[in-house]
Amino acid sequence: MIDTSAIADPSRPASARGLSKTYGTGPTAVAALRGVTVEFARGTFTAVMGPSGSGKSTLMHCLAGLDRPTGGHVYVSGRDLTTLDDRQLTRIRRDHIGFVFQSFNLVPTLTARQNILLPLDLAGRRADPARLGATVAALGLGDRLDHRPGELSGGQQQRVAIARALVTEPDVVFADEPTGALDSSTAAGLLELLRRSCHELGQTVVMVTHDPIAAAHADRALLLSDGLLVRELERPTAAAVLDQMRSSAS
Ligand SMILES: Nc1ncnc2c1ncn2[C@@H]1O[C@H](COP(=O)(O)OP(=O)(O)OP(=O)(O)O)[C@@H](O)[C@H]1O
């Protein structure tokens, strides 16, 4: 069989067209996404915002191939994920997508270093030592690499999860509330790292956040409301984001 993931196109990291997702059926069905069309260009940093229940996590999970949409299309690295079987989807996730979960999802029995290198090990790849060193140093993890997750603070575990997502150099990184467990100065350092990795290394990052100050580090902020994309702000400031959040809530 032809390995279709071999023809992936990294210049088109991620997009969605008419994306919908309904959980359940009948009277209890919940329409979490109701036709979202959006494009994430290479080397850009996007913040996804919106009230609780507006569909942010569902959007990230569908874009990352962790959840199957009920309608529309998702493209990652130029491939339509909705046409792939589970094996092909797993391969695209492994080779082209990084994901930072709200709950970190670290392996408790492995050290920080082993957790960071796990996706590369599973793919039979070696880490680029320069990329690994720069990522670990920028995240302030240099002296924590031999500790297990249980010996790390929540913020340190968060940073290990982020290093793990970046070190494979995926075409796109999806991060669900990556600054949620961090104090404000560590959060600012992480956001600066994400921004630099987009602008200097061509990384593409899509981040869910509730925090307008975090969103102001991004190139663009998207506002979801009730499963729809209702606003897009280019070069957002915290004040402009707050303003849009207030006006879409009223
Ligand atoms: N597995 C599921 N089964 C049923 N309904 C779900 C499921 N996951 C999400 N939903 C519903 O879909 C809607 C969107 O949820 P989602 O988690 O995407 O929102 P969110 O914007 O990420 O919220 P939050 O900011 O609280 O994390 C909500 O009404 C939620 O209750």
Q: Mean pLDDT, nearest integer?
A: 90
- End-to-end Cα distance, whole Å, is 54 Å
Derived structural class: alpha/beta
Give the tally of structural domains.
1
Oligomeric status: single chain
The outline comes out as globular
Poorly predicted runs: 1-5
Roughly how much helix do the residues carry, as a percent range? 25-40%
Query: Could you say what the CATH topology is called?
Result: Rossmann fold
Beta percentage is: 15-25%
Element string (H = helix, E = strand): EEEHEEHEHHHEHEHEEH
Widest beta sheet: strand line-up: 6-7-8-3-9-10
Give me the CATH superfamily: P-loop containing nucleotide triphosphate hydrolases
Describe the structure.
Helices cover 35% and strands 24% of the residues. With 250 residues, it is of the alpha/beta class. It has one domain (9-111, 170-249): Rossmann fold (3-Layer(aba) Sandwich), CATH 3.40.50. The protein is globular, with a radius of gyration of 18 Å. Residues 1-5 have low confidence and may be disordered. Adenosine-5'-triphosphate is lined by residues 23-24, 30, 32, 50, 52-58. Residues 23-24, 30, 32, 50, 52-58 line the site of adenosine-5'-triphosphate (ATP). This is Putative ABC transport system ATP-binding protein.
